Amino acid sequence: MDKTYCHYHPAQPATWHCAPCARHFGDCCMPRNADAPDEQPSCPLCRAALTYLGAANRAQPFWERIPRFFLYGLQAAPLQLAALVALVSLFMPSGFMATMALLVVLISLTSKYLEAVIEHASLALAEAPSLSAAFGSGRFSLFFQLLGLVLLSAGLMWLAADFHSEAIFMITALLIQLVLPAIIIRLVLDKSLLAALNPDAIGAVIKAMGWRYLILWVFCFMLWSLPDSVTYLLAHGLPRVVLMPVATFLFVYSLVVMSAMLGYAVFQYQGALGFAAAAEDEHAGFPEPEYRKRRALAEAEIRLKEGQAGQALEVLGKALDRDANDLRLNERYHQLLFAMQSRERCLRHLAHYLPLAARQNPAQAATAMLNARQLQGDYLPEDALVCEKVAEALLARHKTREGLSLLRNFHQRFPDYPHVPRAYLLAARGFAEGLGQLEPAQKLLGFIRSRYPGSPLLDEVEALEAVISRLAAN
Ligand SMILES: [Zn+2]
Ligand SMILES: [Zn+2]
């Protein structure tokens, strides 16, 4: 099956499709709303309801992989286990207790291994688990859970037999058989018999797979009867000493094949089964405000890639009406206006954006400032603190002249600003360290000394003066 990817992000698998627009979207473009998880997303381009693709894009359906499950059982580890169990079955002790004890050991080993097979296959691992899964320190409780399951089924059948009606007996037997694969799947996922017997949990498995659960069931049933049929065919002419291990070997083999198929079905329906814990977190969605913001950003990107810059701007503008002070939205809005060379609108927006960015992310503000200067050569922010912050970020980026231009005549432009000494100290550093111009730096430091004799920055002024005089001496 060919994989489809997001039309706008070629590395992301597609999860949604719009038929009218013939566009695939990945989760990248379709943030989920955690406050309305059942909300059906609509197409960002035409607003039509989208079709959910689910894991269909990631997993091949299990019924197309039946031959692979048979091959799976032919790997070394499952064959060794089948051979071992078959061999031991040849040497069954004669006493009842000893036979029982040996059976418990064999069933326990096999079931532990099968559980590992289901777990491996549910992660779509092609390699069977090693034999250590059977002998390792896995949980022993599985044996008792299976025993409980057998006893419960037997009890139900016994109750059904009490009605003396063949129909009731047959229906009970069929129902038990029908839910068994779902119970096994839940038992492996939940590790608890009580949880596995919960009708809601069983129903969830069957509901997730829909009518395809019947395919799974039919194959399990066929695999279960396979050893019987084969031994029946071989029964004529073969001695019991050969027949017994052959039947046991085949039985273990078909159980491995069955487990591989059950495990893969879990993988294929992981979303619906609530199995993919990590992946689920990823797509759990965002609270309403964050969701709307992400949705707007994604939609603007899609519009832009479709060559609809005007609509992209509109989408971001609406989002900004709701959330005027969001830095990310403002940044995108600014970039778009600048790219469109929409001079007036961009400068108008900068009056709002630049102070915002200067507070939250001065480096970003420095970029916006450089853009502003391209639109208007003498652009200056109106706020003293913004000038200072942006100048500092520009100096750090070695855009010394641009940075210094923001600090020029600070005491005249902002006579009431309490941090003029700090701004001039910054400017003096810019002159001395950025441009190597010692004279203007000394002048600025002298100005601080004479105009602000009580400034707490005088220590730093002195230190910089010392550096400058050393530089001047060289
Ligand atoms: Zn995308
Ligand atoms: Zn559409």
Fold topology:
Elements: E1 14-18, E2 23-26, E3 51-52, H1 66-72, H2 76-90, H3 96-122, H4 132-135, H5 141-161, H6 166-190, H7 193-197, H8 199-209, H9 212-234, H10 240-268, H11 270-273, H12 277-282, H13 288-305, H14 309-322, H15 327-339, H16 343-360, H17 362-375, H18 384-396, H19 400-407, H20 410-413, H21 420-435, H22 438-451, H23 458-473
Antiparallel strand pairs: 1-2, 1-3
Helix pairs in contact: 1-10, 2-10, 3-10, 5-6, 6-8, 9-10, 13-14, 14-15, 15-16, 16-17, 17-18, 18-19, 19-21, 21-22, 22-23
The protein binds zinc ion (2 copies).
Residues 6, 8-9, 12, 25-26, 28-29 line the site of one zinc ion (ZN).
Characterise the protein shown here.
Helix content is 69%, strand content 2%. The chain is mostly helical. Among the domains are: 62-280, no CATH class; 409-474. Strands 2-1-3 form a three-stranded antiparallel sheet, with no helix packed on it. A hairpin with a 4-residue loop joins strand 1 (14-18) and strand 2. Helix 2 (76-90) runs antiparallel to helix 10 (240-268) and helix 5 (141-161) runs antiparallel to helix 6 (166-190). It starts with 13 loop residues before the first strand and ends with a helix. The structure holds zinc ion (ZN) (2 copies). Residues 18, 20-21, 43, 45-46, 48 line the site of one zinc ion.
Please describe the structure with a list of short key phrases separated by commas or semicolons.
474 residues; mainly alpha; three-stranded antiparallel beta sheet; 23 helices; binds zinc ion; DUF4013 domain-containing protein; transmembrane
